[in-house]
Amino acid sequence: MQNPYLPYPVRIEAIITETEDKNLKTFKLVFLNPDDEDKFSYNAGQFAELSIAGKGEIPIGIASSPTEKGFIMFTVNKVGLVTSHLHNMKPGDIMGVRGPLGNWYPWDIMEGKNVVIIGGGFAFTTLRSSIIYMLDPANRPKFKDIHVIYGARTPGMLLYKDELAEWEKRDDIHMHITVDATDDPNWKYNVGFVPTITDRKAPPGNADTYAIVCGPPIMIKFTQPVLDKLDYAHDHIIMSLEMRMKCGIGICGRCNIGKEYVCKDGPVFTLDQLNNMPKEY
Amino acid sequence: MKVIKIDKKNWAEGLERSSRTYRLFGPLEQDGFHVFKALGDGELPNLDVQNTRLSPRSVVYPQSEKMFEFTLDEKQEDHHILKEVSKDYSPRAVIGIRPCDAKAFLLVKRNFETPEYKDPYWLKSYEATTLVGHACSGPCSTCFCTTAGCGPFYEEGLDILLVDVENYFLAKILTEKGERFIVAAGWEIEIDLPLIDQADTMKAAAEAKITTRVSTDRLRDKNTTDLFEASFWEDVAFSCINCGTCTYVCPTCWCFDIQDETYGLSGIRMRNWDSCMYSLFTLHGSGHNPRDAKVQRVRQRFMHKLKYYVDRYDNGIQCVGCGRCVRFCPVNIDIRRVCDLMNSFES
Is B167 helix (H, G, I), strand (E, B) or coil? Predict the structure, then answer.
């Protein structure tokens, strides 16, 4: 019997400090046993449990894309015991990864459709995975227009800044980067909260357009009325939830919303589904 | 199904013989109360207890269980890599388990064995366990098993059902596991038809003694969000002190936590029973907590057992009517009353 609690051993290959407050770091991990990489076959939108012997496990969205081979990548906000320890680890250190876990963004349903990605703050990790996935030459023809609305408090708080700049230069993706405020005279992108920029830049909703929304509760609260105004049907608005988790496989009992376990039945739900679930998240 | 009778004179001897093949567990007195514990040499389970305070779930699912071990010593080649620990999954038998507690394992199994994931610790323990049940001739006043999908002589979930008839145990052998146990115990296969009639009469009498009931027939059709937002939750939760006793004594509660413990350079990853009654159960790293308030946690416990489980598995409620939570709740919260509130709720 396969033990679903046993993590694959991995080595930290690189650590990148993403944000100016140094609270977000990206960890590039390499499997110690090459076979494990094949077993860890994932889709954009899934998460994994990062395991540190002696400290515990944390559920973190996978920031790398299935089209990127040879490593997996996670961007981690420093908040608690495990994340604080992880932030002090060094390249070469050994840890574990358990997964992939949960469901993913509905790539099969979104095929042939317009995709609008709306992200705020550090909830951009699985969205990065999604963008890299869609922009892969083998996948790009499968999608129509791609819009990305991504905001952070300041320019220095944006994740993946080099890649954002690269995507800005392309003509097969419409980037709408924004910050809440900045005094940087060289800032050449938008200024304003994500809901405001969504209102201005997002294409109108229709049967052929899906929005993936990830961000802090306050952003989601004010973005939803904008999407309603733009005529997005609730089954065309896709969201990813966070919960305290332990097992990650729907067994330990803590991450439920109603009868659904966020770890196993989620973390991805449509707004339509969430409307019919208890408001307990 | 075979039915045999065991002369009580041969009871101790049979158990002794079976203990060569099985690790035996049964109700034993501890600090003035009974719990299911491993039987020592020559020790006999006390079958006179109505039921134990704690359910026997710990025989299959220990309160604390080691999952993995590791070393933090960087001089070791496998440092910081989790390794499986060896475990004793040799045959074990629980003697004197009540039918409700045995049925509870079947309900819990739906959580630990799913099409996608199988919990190896729980399943291997469960597979290794033979459940030798003891029919209840004198149920407690808090028992409501007959309307909770179970009963004092209920057989599903058991491998053997013992009925205490004067100088004999009538043993219904319900599964192959049960048959293997009888062979290991070496009890003579002897059938006594009048005894079977007597057991049937006892069964009817025991069922008649269970007078408290729950109605569950309308739970399935209720709208989850309406029930979730019902106004009675504040009232139900008002007296709750979130002590967690209900979840601790319950045979069908399964939630657990995973924790690492280290001593010097060696460590283990373990799992411990957890409880939805505690706010830490759902506290996010950010400080946000979806079940921060007591009323949310109380609602979660009852909604899980009586609505979410019902909807998820379409196989009844996650309760066998053992009545422990009713008996041991320090503030007299009664699942029977809550179940009726839910079942009769109109939005």
Answer: coil
